[in-house]
Task: structure prediction
Amino acid sequence: MSKLTIHDIAKHAGVSTGTVSRALNGRFGVSAATRDRVLRVVSELGYVPDPDARQLAKGSRTVIGITRFSETSLRNAYYTLLLDLIQEALVGAGYAVRILDTKDVARPGVAGMIVPGVYLADPRFEELRAHQRPFVVIGEMPSEYTWVEVDNRNGMRQAITHLLGLGHTRIIHMTGSPIGQTAQLRLETYQNVMRDANLEPNPELILDGRFTQLGAYRAMQRALDQKLEFSAVACASDEMAFGVLAALEDAGLNVPKDISVTGFDDLPLDDTIEHLPLTTVHQPMRLIGHTAAQLMLELLEGAAPRGVLLPTNLVTRASTAAVRQPQTV
Amino acid sequence: MSKLTIHDIAKHAGVSTGTVSRALNGRFGVSAATRDRVLRVVSELGYVPDPDARQLAKGSRTVIGITRFSETSLRNAYYTLLLDLIQEALVGAGYAVRILDTKDVARPGVAGMIVPGVYLADPRFEELRAHQRPFVVIGEMPSEYTWVEVDNRNGMRQAITHLLGLGHTRIIHMTGSPIGQTAQLRLETYQNVMRDANLEPNPELILDGRFTQLGAYRAMQRALDQKLEFSAVACASDEMAFGVLAALEDAGLNVPKDISVTGFDDLPLDDTIEHLPLTTVHQPMRLIGHTAAQLMLELLEGAAPRGVLLPTNLVTRASTAAVRQPQTV
DNA sequence: GTAGATAACGCAAGCGTTTACGAAAAGTCA
DNA sequence: TGACTTTTCGTAAACGCTTGCGTTATCTAC
Result:
């Protein structure tokens, strides 16, 4: 089957190409009836407009940049997946996507920026604000700007509640870098949920794993050396959970028999590594990517900035179990 | 300045647009004299052809896929940088770049694949071979196919020679996953250079860090626990070197006073983390990206597969120093 | 029912390239 | 030198889409 063009659609729907174009782009000047008919034909034939032709006709090419991550905050797998999803949505809408630096915001031809993992305190954030270009932030919630973030509170609440339900009371929280809102929210929620259960959060049980495997491994090891008493570890990221798992394993402890561990992110794992299936808070990755792209398109059409909070939910797997010997508070 | 088009070039050079196009694309039917004149005007005015228009005129859109990494082999920063560079070159040549999975090779519209960090033993490699589409491999050297890789031998040789020159004789080699050629070559070279210096390589001094910070940290820690005697660590990646640095620091050892450490890759570091400046083997990242793109374009034009080996060189920084108390073999 | 306003749509001219095709210029050979 | 081949280059028609303009159909209000 040779390439399907807008002319084919026009012919099938009995209208002109101009009308098809307008229907497709939601422009005014098309009656609801014909729009529906056109759209039906489009989906029946499986027509998808050629991004090149579209761009060409629209005028100068518009590219949307996605920044690199800061190393520490979020890791490889997460980023790559996100990139892919955003690309999918944006290219579908006729934009080009490039990986850029925040300073490229000003570059001609760059219509906007999607910035995952940028801290509000980050100088790069200032850079973005200084320019006129629209941008959408992933993973932080700068008021007055456009962002998409997951429901950290609810996610962590579910994880801690799950652990409490299994009888754990001495629960370590492995927190990430304290610079970001994300880590902060997860930490706060941990503290709140503990308090709600009448367990005054013990500062000793809050460890900083810097959002990395190694950081969490070291923190955990130090805690074990100090004979810290605990039966569960709630981590602010999967990455850190893997570090914790390794430290526990090296100490001869069994997960989940001796210690329960929870993560946060639900990263798709590389098949080549076998890990204990992790009980973790799932982030709707596809939705995040899709939403970020959608918000960008919205912004480009002149919409007002807004934030979107996406749901999270706990996925119970093999790294958590009932506490071994019930403890008295 | 409004957009520069092929017409502007044509006018300035006193030729037709067709001629400009032919000159630009190296097609036959244009004399050397006019080609040079056109090219000169092009670079003078800084004209760059519109990829969209080019694609549109050329026919159906062609996209070139880049696969995701397998987690373990090469890390985030490396990958992202590479992605950026390849994108730059390929988009400039009028192609679209998408992040895809190896199984998408067969997808219509995908002209080729660039696959960084795929092992030869990987089933994904078979997948690539099974289809007709051209692909170029980064970081492995599959004979009969097209690849770009850095000179692992020379790089590791320089690193070890540097350490030997500083008086070190008990040098640990922190190797990566043994599945890949890369780790294998670096390991072999370490052994060879040691032998050349009349130091029979000691198997005890070969540690597996699995190409990750955590892996290297654990391996190093174990070695320290066993009171292994050594004065330097030559790592097969920067990532692992950071793990080693952390382990040494935790053990109260000073780098480079007590122990010298070398890396491999010369990853651009995230500014937010302060690390000891690492003596490491530099990989010409820009060149790698550029070469991969170039090879792909070549392949698309029907050229025969070939491999390109890129140079490496040692960058001496603060993590290496003369051995403390000279040792006798 | 008619005039005037408004909404719906078709027409066709681009957007910046590439690439047949054919004309003109330059070589080639006897 | 003339006829014929080859090379060089200009012309113009695509490529698939958007959009301003003008035309026709549909409303609205009297």
Residues 2 and 78 of chain B are 36 Å apart (CA to CA).
